[in-house]
Design brief:
This is PD-(D/E)XK endonuclease-like domain-containing protein. The protein is α/β, with parallel strands linked by helices and about 280 residues long. It has a domain of about 110 residues. The strands form two sheets. A five-stranded mixed β-sheet has the order 2-5-6-7-8, with helices on both faces. β3 and β4 form a beta hairpin. It is globular and about 60 Å long. The two termini are about 25 Å apart. The model has no long low-confidence stretch (mean pLDDT about 90). The structure holds zinc ion. Zinc ion binds next to α2.
Length: about 280
């Protein structure tokens, strides 16, 4: 149970929805049995993305806009690296940055520096200002059963036209390929709902979900706008989606060779656990 008495199985992040579509058994093991970080292998590119996302958070937290490039490259990268190492030291390798740390080295840091340098130069050093920062967000979905969405976008920024933007920064080595595979269905809805109460409290009646690309700094084309006063439909849509996922009680396996969960030696044990604890069959 979470602190608010909502069972953890009723709490969904963007990746829970994605997992449930890709491999239902994988979802059951990560979501119900809480083996969330056991299978994260990490990669060089994922580590670059993680470093860059932390750097943008540092830029916003210090509000040091308009600083010279060297400042960005020196101060923020050191701070980002320190954060990752510290958190793994405190929480162990089975934690959020557990798979990042394996690839955190001179090569990935150099590549991330190079990407952010290019981003900075192409945008003339311009970062849109942060309007609010919080790392973990939640949104309750009320209905017959109470559900919770959780997670967090990289930033809440003031858009050029005065519309506040919920922004997710993405690192794709190949920007076009990344854009082609981008989820612009669930991700925008969930991130907007997570931030909605805060945005309404701050007096915004309209907002925009935007994706910014580290490797395509000037692309302003990927976004969706939302009216803050018509979010009930979104909530209902996600509530139905969760109800539907929770109603499936049969096992199904993707059986792909790359699926760490389907191919695990613990498969039988997990099936047994899911059968006894959660009545799957
Ligand atoms: Zn699988």
């Amino acid at each position: 149970m979470a602190k608010d008495n909502i069972p953890l199985e009723h709490c969904f992040s963007v990746s829970d929805f994605k997992n449930s579509e890709r491999c239902f058994f994988n979802f059951l093991v990560t979501h119900y049995l809480r083996q969330r970080y056991e299978f994260e292998e990490g990669s060089f590119n994922q580590t670059i993305g993680t470093i860059l996302d932390l750097v943008i958070k540092k830029v916003h937290a210090s509000k040091a806009y308009g600083e010279p490039l060297n400042y960005l490259l020196e101060m923020y990268f050191k701070a980002a690296e320190k954060d990752i190492r510290q958190e793994v030291e405190e929480k162990g390798v089975k934690s959020f940055y557990g798979s990042t740390i394996k690839f955190l080295n001179a090569d990935s840091l150099a590549k991330a520096r190079q990407v952010s340098e290019n981003y900075y130069l192409k945008r003339g050093g311009k970062f849109n200002r942060s309007v609010f920062f919080k790392r973990f967000w939640e949104c309750l979905l009320e209905g017959e059963r109470l559900f919770k969405l959780w997670g967090g976008p990289d930033a809440l920024e003031m858009g050029d036209d005065g519309v506040v933007e919920v922004v997710d920064y993405k690192y794709f080595e190949n920007a076009q390929k990344g854009k082609d595979n981008l989820d612009m269905d669930l991700m925008p809805k969930i991130y907007i709902l997570l931030c909605a109460a805060q945005l309404v409290e701050m007096g915004y009646d309209k907002t925009r979900f935007r994706v910014r690309f580290w490797t395509d700094p000037l692309d302003e084309s990927i976004y969706e706008e939302f009216d803050m006063f018509s979010l009930n439909n979104l909530k209902q849509y996600l509530r139905f989606k969760i109800e539907k996922i929770l109603s499936v009680k049969e096992f199904s396996f993707c059986e792909q060779s790359f699926c760490k969960v389907c191919n695990s030696g613990q498969r039988r044990d997990w099936i047994k656990q899911l059968q006894t604890q959660f009545k799957f069959r």
